[in-house]
């Protein structure tokens, strides 16, 4: 069933978190008459499909959402219908932690765990555990998550990564058309860039998203330690890049730092990124290249043999991936094995 996008109530609720975490009684979700699209759905950016959807939703607006219930930016990872949120308003860690989310279509509920909102398909499952490939599992380790910003990430500089400050500046240039919108930092790790995006004040909302529970816990600790960004427009979300919890065409910018080579199926991930981006939305990613045009021809077979299995690509493959998934205006900057690429949703 289609859901309306309804602006969050302006004042915070004083309800207790235990009350808010109760399953939401929303079998036939009632909808508000006051329809507004969320900030990231600003009119100049609307896709035709989004407009049609909003109209369809408006036609269903006979009933009303309950007190403190509204539709936020998150969608069900199973069916992609926008989730109904119940709880205090505000796009910040505390308010999201105290909110419950429900898909009226699947009747599934989602809530926060350890300060991040779990929007994986497996959230809440009791018996089933999904084993992911090495590139994903490695970063779920508490030790790797702890070490990540304490030396691991810094070691990327040896391969040509210009360092977080410069990478952030480069990404911000590409993201100019997305200013003021919703940015999702996919595979955020310990939140190195999410914190910079949130602190920049450039975006109305920043979602730090990763599959690793421990990376998200580490992100939370770093956010708390910095103090100043806890109340920024920032959310911590657990999700699989191949199943992004956002409605189609609802995201202005997607950043994926040093992540493409870690994803189980890069083509599924980039298709998914293309799905959630709105028309004109920007995708910026960085990764390690297997070799570049300046790598001596004699060294290539060796790099080919050892690095292909780690999903290290060559420049042309990344461009091919982006284009085949429907993205356009591909550009890139290369420095030794480092590549930053950008592409746009038509
Ligand atoms: C090398 S870290 C990059 C962290 C950060 N973006 C940066 O620029 O330093 C790669 C991240 O990809 C995440 N990742 C791996 N597989 C994933 C998946 N299927 N969905 C979402 N994130 C995934 C890992 O948990 C890890 O945090």
Description of the structure:
The chain has eleven helices and 13 strands. It folds into two domains: 95 residues, no CATH class; 211 residues, Rossmann fold (3-Layer(aba) Sandwich), CATH 3.40.50.150. A nine-stranded mixed sheet has the order 5-6-9-8-7-10-11-13-12, sandwiched between helices. A four-stranded antiparallel sheet has the order 1-2-3-4, with no helix packed on it. The relative contact order is 0.13. It is of the alpha/beta class and 346 residues long. S-adenosylmethionine (SAM) binds next to α4 and α7.
Helix and strand element order? HHEEHEEEEHHHEHEHEEHEHHEE
| Number of helical segments with 4 or more residues | 11
Looking at CATH, the homologous superfamily of the largest domain is Vaccinia Virus protein VP39
Strand content: 15-25%
Protein topology:
Elements: H1 17-20, H2 48-59, E1 69-75, E2 82-86, H3 93-97, E3 100-103, E4 108-110, E5 112-113, E6 116-118, H4 134-137, H5 142-152, H6 164-174, E7 182-186, H7 192-200, E8 205-210, H8 213-226, E9 234-238, E10 251-256, H9 266-276, E11 277-288, H10 300-307, H11 315-324, E12 328-335, E13 338-344
Parallel strand pairs: 6-9, 7-8, 7-10, 8-9, 10-11
Antiparallel strand pairs: 1-2, 2-3, 3-4, 5-6, 11-13, 12-13
The structure holds S-adenosylmethionine.
């Amino acid at each position: 069933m289609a859901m309306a996008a309804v602006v969050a109530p302006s004042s915070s609720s004083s309800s207790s978190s235990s009350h808010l975490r109760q399953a939401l009684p929303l079998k036939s979700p009632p909808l508000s008459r006051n329809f507004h699209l969320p900030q990231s759905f600003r009119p100049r950016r609307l896709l035709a499909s989004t407009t049609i959807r909003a109209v369809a939703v408006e036609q269903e607006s006979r009933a009303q959402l309950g007190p403190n219930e509204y539709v936020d930016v998150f969608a069900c990872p199973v069916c992609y219908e926008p989730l109904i949120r119940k709880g205090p308003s505000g796009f910040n860690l505390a308010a999201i932690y105290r909110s419950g989310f429900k898909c009226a279509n699947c009747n599934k509920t989602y809530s926060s765990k350890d300060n991040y909102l779990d929007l994986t398909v497996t959230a809440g499952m009791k018996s089933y555990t999904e084993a992911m490939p090495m590139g994903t599992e490695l970063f779920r380790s508490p030790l790797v998550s702890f070490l990540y910003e304490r030396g691991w990430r810094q070691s990327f500089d040896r391969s040509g990564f210009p360092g977080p400050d410069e990478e952030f500046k480069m990404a911000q240039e590409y993201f100019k058309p997305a200013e003021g919108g919703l940015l999702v930092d996919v595979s955020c790790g310990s939140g190195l860039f999410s914190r910079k995006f949130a602190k920049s004040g450039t975006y109305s909302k920043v979602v730090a998203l990763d599959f690793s529970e421990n990376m998200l816990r580490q992100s939370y600790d770093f956010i708390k330690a910095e103090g100043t960004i806890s109340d920024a427009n920032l959310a911590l979300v657990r999700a699989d890049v191949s199943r992004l919890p956002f409605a189609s065409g609802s995201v202005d910018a997607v950043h994926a730092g040093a992540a493409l080579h870690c994803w189980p199926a890069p083509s599924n991930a980039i298709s998914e990124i293309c799905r959630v981006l709105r028309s004109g939305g920007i995708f910026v990613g960085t990764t390690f290249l297997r070799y570049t045009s300046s790598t001596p021809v004699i060294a290539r077979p060796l790099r080919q043999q050892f690095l292909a299995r780690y999903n290290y690509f060559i420049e042309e493959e990344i461009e091919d991936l982006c284009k085949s998934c429907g993205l356009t205006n591909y550009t890139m900057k290369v420095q030794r094995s480092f590549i930053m690429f950008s592409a746009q949703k038509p």
